[in-house]
Amino acid sequence: MSSSPAPLKPADLPRHVAIIMDGNGRWAKQRFLPRPAGHRAGVGAVQKTVEQCIARGIEVLTLFAFSSENWRRPAQEVSLLMELFMLTLEHETKKLHNNGVRLRVIGDRKAFAPVLQEKIKEAEALTRNNTALHLVIAANYGGRWDLTQAARRLAEEVEAGRLQSQDITASMIESHLALADLPEPDLFIRTGGEQRISNFLLWQLAYTELHFSPLLWPDFDEAAFSGALTSFAGRQRRFGYTGDQIERNPAS
Ligand code: FPP
Question: What is the DSSP string of 143-187?
Answer without folding.
Answer: HHHHHHHHHHHHHHHHHTTSS-GGG--HHHHHHTSTTTTSPPPSE
